[in-house]
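Consider the following assembly input.
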Amino acid sequence: MQGVANYVGGRWVPLDAPDVTPVVDPATNEVLATVPSDGSEGVAEAAAAAARAFPGWRAVPAGDRIQYLFRFKQLLEEEFDGISRLISRENGKTCAEAAGELRRGIENVEVACGIPTMMQGYNLEDIARGIDETMNRAPLGVVGVITPFNFPVMIPLWFLPYAIACGNTVVIKPSEKVPLSIRKVVEVLERTGLPEGVVNLAHGGRAAADALIEHPEVRAISFVGSSPVARHVYASAARHGKRVQCQGGAKNHVVVMPDADLETTTQIVTDSAFGCAGQRCLAVSTVVTVGDAHRSFMDAIVEAAGSLRVGRGLSKDVQMGPVITAESRSRIEGAIARGAVEGAEAVLDGRGIRVDGYPNGNFVGPTVLDRVDGGGFLGTTEVFGPVLGVTPVSSLQDAIDVIARSPFGNASSIFTTSGASARKFRTEVPTGNVGINIGVAAPMAYFPFSGWKDSFFGVMHGQGRDAVEFYTDKKVVIERWPQEWSRRF
Ligand code: NAD
């Protein structure tokens, strides 16, 4: 069992809660650690520490603040393999996927090192004769970050580097399912010499999240998780007068046109649907085949998905790991059953899969369901597992219409060799991240992680310029300094 501790005001505080939630290895269901089921007291201490640290931290020049981030990046590189293995252990994803996650997280540290430029305001001399106007950006104060289980390190890093580079102090409330790798990341951050209280870590469940949202010292909330919780966090934070950005769930579609390159398309869609066992907010969940694409794509995807090696993420050569909990496995298997009741055909059925050496793991094999009703339960509900539905339609317009009816708008992609089809899709599809011959349209750190409809609540997205906008207040200064006053001396 590993110890989970809060990090408050520069000190590690061991946790000794009466009610705890077990943290399990998804491949074995062995208990790795426990976290407090509540955790609200720890959040209050962390928010108070962050509030105490704020005046000192905001007075540190931006150019000096980013020196900590340069050191952070260097130390993350040095600890890269160890952190990746921890991610794999507690989340279940493969080591290669964990390494990919960490790499994308580090990119955000790199981009936030540009804050002295990104945070600049603007000005105009002589808005009236002898009067100048300037817009400066100021940090907000304490920022709360609430994150999900599926990217234990990358998602906290979507927010933390920008928030502190802008001069804010931070409280992170990670998912109670994956507290270990973020602990390691905060230990690494501590080694940069970051002043105490600038970054704080407080573990717990929904009570801890609510305590953070409601805390009077917290000015802004960055949240990532499922849409029902995102909706709750958005409403509650607004009710408590907080600035808030909430990234929610997803149901992503890929359109396969008859002119698509079948080999490339199949390879990319296989990775997109089954990578991280489908537990990615950018995973493709439904393929909409247009016309003749259906038959050839079905044959190819069933063969590719059926040949994936499923096993423990930490094991060599494994291509797909388990899902996070036994409850997730039951929920996913239930969704497959419901799809079948709605008339879909399970051409590849991953229910009941056995993995040698791991009889207790939460494994679901790659599953492909044909003729999924785009408007039914399986067509509209986020499954968040290795389940790919296929919905055949007869035209690109029909495909766009299927996507438009989804309550979610996180991402969609098209596979085609036609520029005209690509352009129509890009222009008309109502999702915030769009891929053209790309399976996982994950924006680089210097672009916003977009997302529309029930996949995002707020205005400013995570990453890049949006992050700077979100984590700063604008202060406008209008000045008059008449020449005749200087003649008095
Ligand atoms: P979740 O919504 O269950 O939990 C997310 C966080 O909210 C956790 O820290 C959890 O402790 C907290 N929480 C849970 N219930 C709460 C409640 N009632 N009140 C307050 N806080 C609460 O999400 P999860 O299962 O950890 O993560 C998977 C979900 O996250 C999926 O829906 C996935 O699509 C989504 N996700 C979205 C993005 C994106 O960028 N849009 C990225 C990653 C994951």
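The pocket of nicotinamide-adenine-dinucleotide is lined by residues 146-151, 173, 175-176, 205-206, 209-210, 224-226, 229, 232-233, 247-250, 281, 382, 384, 410, 449, 451, 455 (CB under 6 Å). Ask yourself how this observation constrains the way the partners meet.
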